[in-house]
Structure formats: C-alpha cells, structure tokens
Design goal:
This protein is of the alpha+beta class. It folds into 2 domains: 172 residues, GAF domain (Beta-Lactamase, 2-Layer Sandwich), CATH 3.30.450.40; 50 residues, Orthogonal Bundle (Arc Repressor Mutant, subunit A). The chain contains 8 helices and 5 strands. It has a 5-stranded antiparallel β-sheet with strand order 2-1-5-4-3, sandwiched between helices. Helix 1 runs parallel beside helix 5, helix 2 runs antiparallel to helix 5 and helix 6 crosses helix 8. The chain is elongated, with a radius of gyration of 26 Å. Pfam families: ANTAR, GAF_2. Keywords: Transcription, Transcription regulation.
C-alpha cells in the first residue's frame, strides 16, 4: 500500500508567503539607485507582505555612525532612530549581530525607556534583525505588531530571510549608485574633452538636443560600429569639417 505524505498546509503557506515577499521586495528595489528611496520601499513592502506585522522600520548606520531611519508609519519613526542610544531592539540587534524578539512588550525589561514609548504608541511586539549591506553600511529591519504573540516562530524565520535578502538588494542599490556617479563624472569629462566635445556640439546642432542625449547618440554609434567612442567622434568631426564640393 502506498502512503502519501504531505507537508502541513500552514508550513506550505509559509514557504509561499516568504517566496512572494522576497519576489516583491526584489521587484521594488531592482530599479532604484537612491538608497533612501530603497529603504522606504523596503519598509512598505515588509509591512504589507509579512502577516502579523503592523508597522516596519529600518535603522541605518554608516561607517559606525548613525545615518538615519525609514519607517512605514512616520508616527513610529522615533522607535527606529537613535534617541534611545544603544537601549533599543534595533541597536541591540546591530551590536550583538543577532535577531532579537520581544513577543509581548508587557513583560519586556531589556529596553525600559524604549519599551514604555513603544507601548504608548500601540506597539505590543517587536522583532529586530541585523542587516549587513556592505563594508560601510549596516542596519536593522524592525518589525512591529499591535498585538502580543503575533510574531510567531515562522515569522522569525521570515524575518531572517528578509534581512539577508534585503542586505543583498541594498548592496546592489549602493553599487548602482556608485556606478551612476562614476558615469556622470566620465560624462562630464567627455563633454569637455577635445574631439568628443566637438562631436557632441555637432550632434546638438543637428538634432537640437541637449548634451547628454548627444553623448548617448555617440555611444550608440560606437556600440553599433564596434569602434571606440573617440574614433566615432573623430569621423563625425572630419565629415562635417570636410569642404563640400561645389
């Protein structure tokens, strides 16, 4: 007789929920180079996608110094900032490099001042997970519940996966921002450089377009012809400078 075994439905749903969360988070952060905007998207997605979570915040430190926060609800932003010093779930999670849970703040004793303020704002449970972004930026994602015991063991696993995935995505955001800044510097240099600058001026005159668009035209031509940008510029300048036959 064949006996079929099945995963419990709740566990199966937990896997699907987590996969949907990570997919949605990836989509939300994949196209931005603005780190602050990425944090805002992150806390919004986490708040809406993790069952049992009512609010979400993110605490950021850059090179060991406080750098800011993001909060899904501005009313609770103070819980993620540095006004409580090291005595908060976020800072404890960052310093200890481990996830911290308080399922019921009514019995919490680790962060007295922070806990009193959190309860006054309607928070009944908190889970803080450290997030490693790169060698300059670390942080913590903070999940808040408005009811005790809402942050179950399964939610803790989801939070751990969320923190790891968020770290990778935020590192990507910072990497794209650095590349964009470098590209802007290169563009500025090219705009002022000899024959490339002349070619850009020609294209601007011919097309009535701004310099960045003219530079992109040159780059597209260089890519299509598989020759260096400067050679494309030289050819263009030579062409327009050549006397027309009468």
């Amino acid at each position: 007789m064949n006996l079929e075994t099945h995963e419990p439905v709740t566990e199966h749903l937990g896997v699907l929920e987590t996969a949907a969360l990570l997919r949605e988070l990836t989509a939300a952060l994949l196209d931005t180079t603005d780190f602050d905007e990425a944090l805002t998207r992150l806390v919004t997605v986490a708040r809406d996608a993790v069952p049992g979570v009512t609010w979400c915040g993110f605490t950021v430190l850059r090179a060991g110094e406080p750098a800011g926060v993001a909060a899904s609800d501005p009313r609770l932003a103070e819980l993620d900032d540095f006004g409580h010093g090291p005595e908060s779930p976020a800072m404890s999670a960052i310093h200890r490099r481990e996830m911290l849970l308080s399922a019921d703040l009514a019995t919490e004793e680790r962060w007295p001042a922070w806990t009193a303020r959190a309860r006054a704002l309607g928070v009944r449970g908190v889970l803080a997970a450290p997030v490693d972004v790169d060698d300059q930026v670390i942080g913590a994602i903070n999940l808040y519940a408005d009811a005790p015991d809402a942050l179950t063991a399964r939610r803790q696993l989801t939070a751990m996966l969320l923190a790891e995935h968020a770290g990778l995505l935020l590192a990507g955001v910072r990497g794209r921002a650095r590349q964009a800044a470098l590209a802007d510097e290169i563009d500025e240099t090219l705009l002022q450089e000899g024959v490339v600058g002349q070619a850009i001026g020609v294209i601007m005159t011919q097309r009535g377009c701004p310099a960045p668009e003219a530079l992109q035209v040159l780059r597209s031509a260089a890519s299509a012809l598989s020759i260096p940008l400067r050679e494309v510029a030289e050819r263009l300048v030579v062409t327009v400078s050549r006397p027309r036959e009468g």
